[in-house]
Design brief:
Elements lengths: L1 E4 L5 E3 L2 H5 L11 E5 L2 E7 L5 E8 H10 L4 E5 L4 H14 L5 E2 H9 L3 H13 L3 E3 L6 E4 L1 H8 L3 H18 L8 H20 L5 H17 L5 H16 L5 H11 L8
Antiparallel strand pairs: 1-2, 1-3, 4-5, 4-6, 7-9, 8-9
Helix pairs in contact: 4-5, 8-9, 8-11, 9-10
């Protein structure tokens, strides 16, 4: 299996046995993230024919065990969760050449996924703004700036875990009196989508800046679940100022102001 150091980014190959070794001074999982593995679950065959899960091994190791003791061991594939599959897909998107990946084709070949599951991968990558579709077909996708940052910071699984912990902490620490209703959030989300499309049509010639702003727009959607209207509106105004400092054309700033002017839903 291939692992990557969480701080330095160095990649090394280790066995599954080494990864699971509980007697090391420091567990590898505390220092490294798994980026590639081909492990299976080895089972012991009991006298009555039942199978008892034993432990995970590299596939080659498991094959040798079964070959030498076919009456004692067998193995089964380890079923990955949807999030684990998305983590693999996002890393593949990050390494894709020439810059895009046919996500549905990749998922079918890699995981033998169902049509429904393959579309879920496309939808979740797009909804989380980790990748964007490049026209038709919509599953020809390119990683976004946000997606690259997620990979660089430990991958999709870590991002999901950090997001959940952050959400729990924020809900516990801060309870605004002027919360957005579900209808308010939907209306704001529509306005932000409208703004995103307007900005995309502008000939800004600054792709990185545009992607960064789209990331900020997605963050603003998320913040409607955490902040009250007053604080969210102040955050929005701060974004306007931030985006206006040489990053957007005057036309871009006009579009932002026009989209949100006189919005009653932002009032308590």
């Amino acid at each position: 299996m291939k692992i990557k150091h969480k701080l330095t980014g160095d990649e090394i190959e280790v066995s599954r046995l080494k990864w699971d070794d509980e007697y090391l001074p420091k567990r590898l999982e505390d220092v490294y993230d798994i980026i590639e593995e081909d492990s299976v679950l080895v089972r012991k065959i009991l006298d009555n024919g039942d199978r008892k899960p034993y432990r995970k091994f590299d596939r080659d190791h498991a094959l040798r065990m079964v070959k030498s003791n076919p009456m004692k061991y067998d193995f089964i594939e380890i079923e990955l969760t949807e999030d684990e599959k998305l983590d693999i897909i996002l890393r593949e998107l990050n390494n894709a050449y020439p810059g895009y990946l046919y996500v549905i084709d990749y998922a079918n070949q890699k995981f033998n996924s169902s049509t429904r599951e393959e579309q879920i991968f496309v939808d979740r990558l797009r909804e989380d703004n980790l990748a964007k579709s490049l026209g038709n077909p919509d599953h020809r996708m390119q990683i976004t700036t946000k997606g690259i940052k997620v990979v660089q910071n430990g991958g999709y699984l870590k991002w999901v875990k950090d997001s959940q912990e952050k959400g729990e902490n924020e809900r516990t620490a801060y309870q605004p009196d002027d919360k957005f209703t579900d209808n308010d959030r939907d209306a704001v989300s529509e306005k932000l989508d409208e703004l995103s499309k307007k900005l995309e049509r502008l000939e800004m010639g600054q792709k990185l800046i545009y992607d960064d702003i789209i990331d900020e727009i997605e963050e603003l959607k998320t913040l409607t679940k955490v902040l009250g209207k007053k604080n969210w509106t102040e955050t929005l105004k701060g974004k306007f100022i931030q985006w206006g400092l040489g990053e957007l054309s005057d036309k871009g700033i006009e579009l932002i102001i026009e989209t949100f002017k006189d919005e009653k839903l932002l009032k308590s």
